[in-house]
Amino acid sequence: xxxxxxxxxxxxxxxxxxxxxxxxxxxxxxRITGEGTGEVFPVLNTEKPEGKLLRLMFxxxxxxxxxxxxxxxxxPSTGYWSLLVIAGFFSFDLSFYVLISKRKNIYxxxxxxxxxxxxxxxLWDISTGFRGWSTDFVIPITCTAAxxxxxxxxxxxxxxxxxxxxxxxxxxxxxxxxxxxxxxxVTNYRLPSLICIGSSVISFGALMIFEGPAMTSEIRxxxxx
Amino acid sequence: MVRGMEPxxxxxxxxxxxxxxxxxxPTRTKRDTKVFRFSCxxxxxxxxxxxxxxxxxxxxxxxxxxxxxxKGLFWYYLEECALEPTVRAEYKPPLTQLYSGLxxxxxxxxxxxxxxxxxxVFHVLSDGAGAIQFFRTLxxxxxxxxxxxxxxxxxxxxxxxxxxxxxRVDSFAKYYEKTGNxxxxxxxxAYKLPxxxxxxxxxIEGTVPVSALRNKSREYSxxxxxMLTANFILSIGEQMDLRDMKRPVVISVPVxxxxxxxxxxxxxxxxxxxxxxxxxxxxxDFPGAIEQVKRSFKSELTxxxxxxxxxxxxxxxxxxxxxxxxxxxxxxxxxxxxxRASRGSTASFSNVGKIELPEALAKYVYIISAxxxxxxxxxxxxxxGDKFTTSFTSAFTSTDIEMNYFRRLSEMGLDVxxxxxxxx
Lengths: 225, 424
Known about the structure:
Structural class of chain B: alpha+beta
Oligomer: heterodimer
Largest sheet of chain B: 7 strands, mixed
Strand content of chain B: 15-25%
Radius of gyration of chain A: 28 Å
Number of helices of chain B: 14
Shape of chain B: globular
Order of helices and strands of chain B: EHEHEEEEEHHHHEHHEEHHHHEHEEEHE
């Protein structure tokens, strides 16, 4: 095809108008004459499916939040329950988003879930008067469960140690938080935290015993300067 | 957790990023993904099975391409992996990101569309000059398998003499000399291209015959690159307002350092020079612009200057204090530093050079070209056989600069052929 204004030959399929209408010159967007020779670049649909789902979720969350606030404001005697509900929506949406976006790496997903659940639980606990159930139970139990899950997954998928060692280390760090809470004497029920710390120590010990060289090699490359 | 884990007899090998590569992960954006593409257009549709085979045969020659990028505490690094590359029909817009922090994937991708074989490479692996070798090997294997299966010796004309080790060398580190001061040149603000930008990059490739182009450049006593750089500058100038002209147009030109310092590396080894043009002060007719560009190239493209710049950049990387900053902090710091530095240039103009194939294989190829990602506007020059291509990638909706550039070429009497992914 040829553009009279630019005096250039144009290769392409003639898809310039977007709907099979007449072809346009890519330089001046003017009309070009002649037969198309076939597209050089494909014409593509570029919307990502996850984007749509996420935006829909946000919309639903927005609608629900507005409805709750409206109802709450018209019945002020029932307290600020709408704030709790909105917090619930946020945490749910956040978890969902993390699940969707980190779905390809199961270890990262697990870790993020632990973090989110812990934070939500602590905030919830604090907002209802801090009875301590978040630090005594939720944190140690989710950490231990995460460690167990990672172990099981490692068995099933036969992943190499380097792929998940970072997450094991981070989860171990969470275990240390349990230790910290005990030392700071914040906890009432110590058993869950002790189990969590124990699991951390055992996992690390076992790792070092059976995969010592692999661990040190991995640590060396992660920390290289 | 303990039972069933294989004790590792062979550790996956890993490589530190070279000095240039360290800058790419933190400075990526949605448009400037630091991915570049080589395209080879054949005379008939691509055979996907043969292409897959060609990729499988090529990869062992370039072991660093079989890597994923991982995060250390202080730096990113490349680690060998067992992932197999897949060959797909082109399914997304050109130059979308190849590294996502979320999942481990190879840092290059081979796609095809009708008659084109595309290779996209994340800049962390290599620069254009380094990737050309990979691309030529890939296309070489394809063409031999498809058209000349009884002449495998033709690969010998493509294969590099360099050893694998030489190809993996970090040449920035090899030639590093402590210069004492790190890069702190005050960056003068350059003219910034204005205009509405769109989500996906638009590519416009324009081809002219090499012989005719060379004759033209001889008329101006310049090299093709110098003449086309001047063309680029003037094309930008034609769409500038008068008051824009108080800032100079600065074109950043990547320079292949292998021409100054011997290196066989297939990774990054380039420097950048800046060609400045002040529309308020200079003669802006074509011959005048060409003279100015020639002066710039002459003064900037010297071994001493390239060495100085290269070492100034590298000094920062070698300073212990800088090295000890955790990656989580380094990334934003480098991003800020980069955006300040990018204020000093208007657009980028890169010359990948001549891409060659053995004569027996070249006859199956229509054209080979290359283009690069950008936040604004970037041009890549390349030539294959008698075809010289300028490939523009642009984030802007306006095509004025490309139009000015190619119109000037056609007005000079050259036959220009244009192709684009522009869909109106």
